[in-house]
Specification:
This protein has 184 residues and is an alpha/beta fold. The protein has one domain (5-183): Maf protein (Alpha-Beta Complex). It has helices at 12-20, 42-60, 87-97, 131-139, 167-171, 175-183, and strands at residues 5-7, 25-27, 66-76, 79-80, 101-111, 115-126, 160-164. Helix 3 (87-97) runs antiparallel to helix 4 (131-139). The longest helix has 19 residues, at 42-60.
Length: 184
């Protein structure tokens, strides 16, 4: 059984996933610059952000509990789409994903005695979306704040033709890697 950990994340999906598997955690809210650097690959990007979140969490920690941080990105054509800040962002992202394959990458970092990071990459195929489907989905406001402008655990699931990889990864926290890092 794992001891209590600190979660350096504001993501309600990560909280839900940890609760679902019975991990006792306390949230540490951190704020870092999550901008992509020039020529940074999607994998390098999620690793860097995850590590920065974990290190910031470690600085704020009030005890020696393990720190868990993660970062998820949606990438198409090796370009990180980021999080949809508004309906226009989401609309643009969904148009890019429509009828195409994209990748969801999540880096998980745990700091306890040592710092370790693992990356999970899932392949997602979207069906061809109509303008009406995109507009209707954007009106729900569900895509706001979501990487790639959709939520697999919500109404966005209807756009997915095929998923190769981890469902929890696409939600924002790959359980296999997370458990291995916390127990290792």
């Amino acid at each position: 059984m794992l001891k209590k950990i600190y979660l350096a994340s504001k993501s309600p999906r990560r909280k839900k996933i940890l609760e679902q598997v019975g991990i006792n955690f306390e949230v540490i809210e951190i704020n870092i610059d999550e901008s992509c650097k020039k020529n940074e690959t999607p994998e390098d990007y999620v690793k860097r952000i995850s590590i920065e979140k974990a290190r910031q969490g470690k600085l704020q920690a009030k005890s020696n509990f393990s720190i868990l941080a993660a970062d998820t990105a949606v990438a198409v054509d090796n370009i990180v789409l980021g999080k949809a800040n508004c309906s226009d962002d989401a609309h643009s992202m969904l148009e890019k994903l429509s009828g195409r394959t994209h990748y969801v990458l999540t880096a998980v970092t745990v700091i306890n005695k040592i710092e370790r990071t693992r990356v999970n990459i899932s392949r997602v195929v979207f069906k061809k979306l109509t303008e009406s489907e995109i507009n209707s989905y954007c009106k729900t406001m569900e895509p706001i704040g979501k990487a790639g402008g959709y939520a697999i655990q919500g109404k966005g699931a209807r756009f997915i033709d095929k998923l190769e990889g981890s469902y929890s990864n696409v939600m924002g926290l790959p359980l296999n890697e997370t458990i291995e890092l916390l127990e290792g």
